[in-house]
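=== Structure Prediction Worksheet ===
Name of assembly: unnamed complex
Input type: mixed (protein and possibly other molecules)
Chain count: two
Listed entries:
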Amino acid sequence: MKFMILVKASEESEAGIMPTEQLLTEMGRYNEQLVNAGVLEAGEGLHPTSNGSRVRFDGENRTVTDGPFAETKELLAGFWIFKVNSKEEAIEWVKRAPFDGGTEIEIRKVFEAADFGEALTPELREQEAPLRAKSAGSI
Amino acid sequence: MKFMIMVKATDDSEAGVMPGIELMTAMGNFNQQLVDAGIMLAGEGLHPSSRGARVFFEGDSRTVTDGPFAETKELVAGYWLWNCASMEEAVEWVKRCPNPMPGPSEIEIRRVFTAEDFGEAFTPELREQEEQMAQAIESRNQS
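=== Predicted Assembly ===
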């Protein structure tokens, strides 16, 4: 099973305060444990929303709004993708992450082809696999 | 530059309403265009937050709360990672995206940190460690 692990923003992350060497070291150690356990598939940190934008879709309309965005504790600051056997296993790994007080992490299950049912037709399934292979090669 | 493109949730996605064949086909074609343009790096859809959880960190304590979560329009329903020359290019591609939801929806675009952004706290040893991890993951994905 795959889970997306969303690290919610804070005033610090939104202010562009970069992690200290100590936190980067602890994070590096944690990431290494995840890799060695075969759990880590991907992980990224995000620039503050002051560097971001939102696009609203309404019928044919597309409206662009630049950041920063207000609702800090609902914003994303980073994420991982974990490959684990259960939600409980994902939660156990998340509890071990080297974060300070006040951090919130959200855990969400990732859709895999088997979840989509009939709308993901055989033709679409055939189209998707090479797209994933080709994208994975370009990272 | 690397960008994360987040599709925000709606009442429909949170209710588990799945895309129909027409949207799946339009999205498949859009994804193909992204791959052909060398932009697509990754993309995933997320199950509704009713299948999710949150962990809150405070000192040594960890508090787990199960979904669903209330603030629908702030939740993430799916994402891509793209390689674009600029924010402007990322915005242009997002505008071309088929509306990912049956009704009005929102996509957020965020720039992703790369090694160059971190400065001196990201020491040579830490950079080396990260490169080795990236290689380990890549070889695992290719096998």
